[in-house]
Amino acid sequence: MTPRRQSGPYYCQPRPSRGFSLIELLVVVAIILIIASIAIPQLVRARMAANEGAAGETVRSITTASMAYSSTWGNGFPATLGTLGGTGAGATCDLANLMDPIVTTAPNRKSGYTFGYLAVGPPVALPADCGNAGTNSYLITAIPILVGFSGIRSFCADEAGTIHYDLSGAKPTTQSACESLPTLQ
After folding, report:
1. Is cis: bond before 107, omega within 30 of 0?
2. How would you class 26 by CB atoms within 10 Å of its CB: exposed for 0-12, middle for 13-18, buried for 19 or more?
3. pLDDT of 11-24, one tens digit each?
4. Which helix (H) or strand (E) holds 163?
5. How far is residue 28's CA from residue 42's CA, in Å, rounded to a whole number?
Protein backbone atom coordinates (compact mmCIF):
# COMPACT_ATOMS: atom_id res chain seq x y z
CA MET A 1 0.00 0.00 0.00
CA THR A 2 1.41 3.29 -1.03
CA PRO A 3 0.53 6.55 0.61
CA ARG A 4 -1.62 8.88 -1.36
CA ARG A 5 0.03 11.91 -2.76
CA GLN A 6 -1.87 15.09 -2.83
CA SER A 7 -1.78 17.01 -5.97
CA GLY A 8 -3.43 20.05 -7.24
CA PRO A 9 -2.92 23.76 -7.64
CA TYR A 10 -2.92 24.58 -3.89
CA TYR A 11 -0.46 22.04 -2.62
CA CYS A 12 3.21 23.03 -2.42
CA GLN A 13 5.80 20.59 -1.45
CA PRO A 14 8.16 22.13 1.15
CA ARG A 15 11.72 22.66 -0.02
CA PRO A 16 14.57 21.77 2.27
CA SER A 17 16.23 24.90 3.78
CA ARG A 18 19.68 25.55 2.36
CA GLY A 19 20.62 28.81 4.16
CA PHE A 20 20.33 32.41 3.06
CA SER A 21 20.04 33.53 -0.50
CA LEU A 22 22.60 35.85 -2.04
CA ILE A 23 20.17 38.76 -2.05
CA GLU A 24 19.41 38.33 1.65
CA LEU A 25 23.13 38.38 2.46
CA LEU A 26 23.71 41.46 0.31
CA VAL A 27 20.87 43.30 2.06
CA VAL A 28 22.37 42.51 5.47
CA VAL A 29 25.84 43.64 4.36
CA ALA A 30 24.39 46.87 2.94
CA ILE A 31 22.60 47.62 6.23
CA ILE A 32 25.79 47.02 8.21
CA LEU A 33 27.74 49.33 5.90
CA ILE A 34 25.14 52.08 6.26
CA ILE A 35 25.25 51.85 10.05
CA ALA A 36 29.06 51.84 10.05
CA SER A 37 29.22 54.89 7.78
CA ILE A 38 27.08 56.77 10.30
CA ALA A 39 28.85 55.55 13.44
CA ILE A 40 32.56 55.69 12.51
CA PRO A 41 32.81 59.50 12.00
CA GLN A 42 31.07 60.01 15.34
CA LEU A 43 33.54 57.65 16.97
CA VAL A 44 36.51 59.54 15.53
CA ARG A 45 35.08 62.88 16.73
CA ALA A 46 34.51 61.48 20.21
CA ARG A 47 38.07 60.16 20.30
CA MET A 48 39.49 63.54 19.23
CA ALA A 49 37.43 65.29 21.91
CA ALA A 50 38.72 62.87 24.54
CA ASN A 51 42.32 63.39 23.38
CA GLU A 52 41.89 67.18 23.50
CA GLY A 53 40.43 67.00 27.01
CA ALA A 54 43.30 64.81 28.18
CA ALA A 55 45.86 67.14 26.58
CA GLY A 56 44.38 70.21 28.26
CA GLU A 57 44.41 68.42 31.60
CA THR A 58 48.02 67.30 31.12
CA VAL A 59 49.06 70.91 30.38
CA ARG A 60 47.30 71.90 33.61
CA SER A 61 49.14 69.12 35.48
CA ILE A 62 52.52 70.25 34.11
CA THR A 63 51.73 73.81 35.20
CA THR A 64 50.79 72.62 38.69
CA ALA A 65 53.90 70.43 38.91
CA SER A 66 56.08 73.38 37.82
CA MET A 67 54.60 75.53 40.58
CA ALA A 68 55.13 72.75 43.13
CA TYR A 69 58.73 72.35 41.93
CA SER A 70 59.37 76.07 42.30
CA SER A 71 58.01 76.24 45.83
CA THR A 72 59.60 72.97 46.97
CA TRP A 73 63.14 73.28 45.63
CA GLY A 74 63.67 77.06 45.48
CA ASN A 75 65.22 76.67 42.04
CA GLY A 76 62.75 78.71 40.02
CA PHE A 77 60.86 76.70 37.43
CA PRO A 78 62.39 73.47 36.09
CA ALA A 79 64.85 73.74 33.22
CA THR A 80 63.35 70.75 31.36
CA LEU A 81 60.22 68.63 31.35
CA GLY A 82 62.36 65.66 32.39
CA THR A 83 63.20 67.43 35.65
CA LEU A 84 59.56 67.04 36.72
CA GLY A 85 59.71 63.28 36.19
CA GLY A 86 61.54 60.55 37.94
CA THR A 87 60.91 57.10 39.25
CA GLY A 88 61.44 55.60 42.64
CA ALA A 89 60.82 56.82 46.14
CA GLY A 90 63.36 59.62 46.42
CA ALA A 91 62.74 63.02 44.89
CA THR A 92 65.58 65.44 44.17
CA CYS A 93 65.91 68.83 42.61
CA ASP A 94 67.00 67.17 39.36
CA LEU A 95 64.31 64.44 39.34
CA ALA A 96 61.38 65.84 41.28
CA ASN A 97 59.05 62.84 40.78
CA LEU A 98 56.05 65.13 40.31
CA MET A 99 54.78 63.93 36.91
CA ASP A 100 53.96 60.75 35.05
CA PRO A 101 57.13 59.38 33.37
CA ILE A 102 55.18 58.88 30.12
CA VAL A 103 54.88 62.64 29.75
CA THR A 104 58.33 63.57 31.07
CA THR A 105 60.45 61.15 29.02
CA ALA A 106 61.06 61.34 25.29
CA PRO A 107 59.14 61.38 23.01
CA ASN A 108 56.81 63.11 25.54
CA ARG A 109 53.62 61.70 24.00
CA LYS A 110 50.33 60.82 25.61
CA SER A 111 46.75 60.50 24.29
CA GLY A 112 47.62 61.54 20.73
CA TYR A 113 49.56 64.67 21.75
CA THR A 114 53.22 65.62 21.98
CA PHE A 115 54.11 67.80 24.96
CA GLY A 116 56.87 70.36 25.01
CA TYR A 117 58.47 72.45 27.75
CA LEU A 118 60.63 75.44 26.97
CA ALA A 119 62.56 77.21 29.74
CA VAL A 120 62.38 80.95 29.10
CA GLY A 121 64.48 83.70 30.60
CA PRO A 122 67.75 83.73 32.47
CA PRO A 123 68.63 80.96 34.90
CA VAL A 124 68.12 81.56 38.61
CA ALA A 125 70.84 81.24 41.24
CA LEU A 126 71.65 77.55 41.55
CA PRO A 127 70.91 76.05 44.99
CA ALA A 128 73.66 73.89 46.50
CA ASP A 129 71.83 70.57 46.09
CA CYS A 130 70.71 71.06 42.47
CA GLY A 131 72.58 70.03 39.34
CA ASN A 132 70.73 72.31 36.89
CA ALA A 133 69.64 75.88 37.42
CA GLY A 134 65.96 76.63 36.93
CA THR A 135 64.51 79.64 35.10
CA ASN A 136 62.15 82.52 35.78
CA SER A 137 59.49 81.43 33.28
CA TYR A 138 58.50 78.66 30.89
CA LEU A 139 56.23 77.73 27.98
CA ILE A 140 54.31 74.45 27.88
CA THR A 141 52.90 73.21 24.58
CA ALA A 142 50.66 70.30 23.57
CA ILE A 143 50.48 69.60 19.83
CA PRO A 144 48.34 66.88 18.19
CA ILE A 145 50.45 64.15 16.62
CA LEU A 146 48.15 64.10 13.56
CA VAL A 147 46.04 67.24 13.23
CA GLY A 148 42.50 66.23 12.34
CA PHE A 149 42.90 62.66 13.58
CA SER A 150 44.33 62.67 17.11
CA GLY A 151 43.10 66.21 17.79
CA ILE A 152 42.39 69.56 16.20
CA ARG A 153 43.42 72.12 18.82
CA SER A 154 46.87 72.72 20.24
CA PHE A 155 47.32 73.98 23.80
CA CYS A 156 49.86 76.13 25.62
CA ALA A 157 50.43 77.71 29.02
CA ASP A 158 53.08 79.70 30.84
CA GLU A 159 53.83 80.54 34.45
CA ALA A 160 50.63 82.60 34.73
CA GLY A 161 48.78 79.25 34.66
CA THR A 162 46.22 80.19 32.01
CA ILE A 163 45.75 77.57 29.31
CA HIS A 164 45.34 78.84 25.76
CA TYR A 165 44.35 76.96 22.60
CA ASP A 166 44.85 77.30 18.86
CA LEU A 167 42.18 75.92 16.49
CA SER A 168 44.73 75.31 13.73
CA GLY A 169 46.79 72.90 15.84
CA ALA A 170 49.94 74.98 15.32
CA LYS A 171 52.65 75.17 17.97
CA PRO A 172 53.08 78.58 19.60
CA THR A 173 56.80 79.34 19.76
CA THR A 174 56.83 82.24 22.22
CA GLN A 175 55.00 83.23 25.37
CA SER A 176 53.50 86.27 23.67
CA ALA A 177 52.18 84.08 20.83
CA CYS A 178 50.64 81.77 23.43
CA GLU A 179 49.07 84.60 25.42
CA SER A 180 47.51 86.09 22.29
CA LEU A 181 45.42 82.90 21.76
CA PRO A 182 41.94 82.38 23.24
CA THR A 183 41.82 80.97 26.76
CA LEU A 184 40.46 77.56 27.62
CA GLN A 185 37.41 77.84 29.86
Report:
1. yes
2. exposed
3. 666 666 677 788 99
4. strand 163-166
5. 22
